[in-house]
Amino acid sequence: MREPFYISTAISYPNGRPHIGHAYEAIAADAIARFQRQAGRDVLFQTGTDEHGLKMVQTARDRGVEVRDLASEMSSYFKAMCDNLNVSYDRFIQTTDADHHRASQAIWQAMANAGDLYLDRYEGWYSVRDEAFYDEKELIDGEGGKLSPQGTPVEWTAEETWFFRLSKYQQPLLELYRDNPDFIRPESRRNEIMRFVEGGLTDLSVSRTSFDWGVAVPGSPGHVMYVWVDALTNYLTGVGYPDGEMKYWPADLHLIGKDIVRFHAVYWPAFLMSAGIASPKSVFGHGFLLHRGEKMSKSLGNVVDPGDLATAFGVDALRYFLLREVSFGQDGSYSAEAIVMRVNAELANSFGNLAQRTLSFIAKNLDGELPVDGRRDVADGQLIEEVIVAAAGFKSAFEDLMLSQGIEAWLRGVFACNQYIDAQAPWALRKTDPDRMNAVLGTLVRAIRILAIVILPVVPEAAGKVLDQLGAAERDHAAVDDDDWYARHAASDFRLAAPSPMFPRLELPAEAA
Ligand code: MSP
What we know:
This protein is an alpha/beta fold. Helix content is 50%, strand content 14%. It contains 18 helices and 16 strands. It has helices at 20-38, 54-63, 67-84, 98-113, 170-179, 187-198, 227-237, 261-275, 306-313, 315-325, 336-365, 378-399, 403-424, 426-432, 434-455, 460-470, 477-480, 485-491; strands at 4-12, 42-49, 91-94, 117-127, 132-134, 140-142, 145-147, 155-164, 184-185, 204-205, 207-208, 224-225, 253-257, 283-286, 289-291, 332-334. The strands form five sheets. It has a six-stranded parallel beta sheet with strand order 3-2-1-13-14-9, with helices on both faces. Strand 1, helix 1 and strand 2 form a beta-alpha-beta unit. Helix 7 packs across helix 8 (261-275), helix 12 runs antiparallel to helix 13 (403-424) and helix 15 packs antiparallel against helix 16. The chain is elongated. The termini are far apart. The relative contact order is 0.11. The site of 5'-O-[(L-methionyl)-sulphamoyl]adenosine has 19 residues, from strand 1, helix 1, helix 7 and strand 13. Residues 10-13, 21-22, 24-25, 50, 231-232, 234, 256-257, 259-260, 288-289, 296 line the site of 5'-O-[(L-methionyl)-sulphamoyl]adenosine.
């Protein structure tokens, strides 16, 4: 039986179109999901949209449309973004889905049964932008008045609501963090959260009565759930809660941005403990993507549509850039120049060129036949060794979510191949020493196949094309370890066709230059 692996992204507010920050999270989660599938895990990968809450209500009102129509139109753009970026989700959840309403009401009922919900009057600060309640002492002074710690406007709210006994979970949460050092990553976010919880927790307002767009609170007419209660529950809906077998629970990884770690690492495990459900194994708060070092915002006019970037540079190029450029967990910056530079240096000129030169040489000069024998040299074994070390480096880094370092390890394998080509000069050997040329080409094909399998989670389409051209059908981690592949394949009647370019060189678009 393959071991389950459940990974999720945050579900995005569809109050506008997706931007590059959303694309970044989806791509990172996708690379991890693909990597775990290669490792032989039975993966469930969920993403989607978070459609309830006051922010959606207000945006719809401002635009003069029905909130349901706004949600379903904008949600479709998020789904299209994922499809366009080759994001291999198993379910794209919408919190308006009927099974999600059922799951949210079930967890609510379980928390009520535990005695953790009570009616009271809420008076305090609320940020609609963050859909979050803040304590007076957390607020900062801004230009137009008080702001949330995220710098968003807050408004005073007073209404009768249901409360969740969050205060009761202070100790259990601290124990959870202590016993599971990997529960919150990276380390800096873990420390932040521990300080916050150690500072004491106040009970949380978990229903609203001033609007009706949300999941109805069972048995309490006029109340809809606080949007984060239902939003977080999406992770359970995806595994069939409350009636299904829940074989994918507890989730292995909730991948989210650094701004929403508190919801995932404090409120969420507290709700789950109350309902008697296991906590997820890990929450990872990645950094923010900045545009030329600046925060993206509508007023600065620097909000970039990920679809435009993918059209300009290609899906694989964009994926490669984002995962390689940003040290996972930290903030990172992007610009057209940076994309072009990185992709040309590492993909087009290094791996792309290596594959293209080798495969077209074989297609042209050997009629596409993979050489079966040839005179071996220690350099051949050394190269394969370096490539295997690169593959292992990628694997262990990806297991630790050190995505950029993983790609860097892979690149060392690519660079080793390029040095080997320069030193062995197979093109020159064609006339002088064809026997040696055969061994060199065979070694390169073996190396290229391994490197292409390794980088598949990052650039699935282009690396997949390399493997298609090589006729390499198996693409999981076991295939990397399959030493006999080359000998078997070369002995078959397989013929390489002339390759079409897989990693084109990028040009800087005119307006960016
Ligand atoms: N709806 C909530 C999440 C609910 S999860 C149960 C939400 N939505 S969001 O649309 O505002 O953000 C979705 C995800 O995108 C979050 O993980 C957020 O951190 C991430 N990002 C939003 N802007 C970002 C960048 N500029 N850069 C990287 N990620 C960013 O929060």
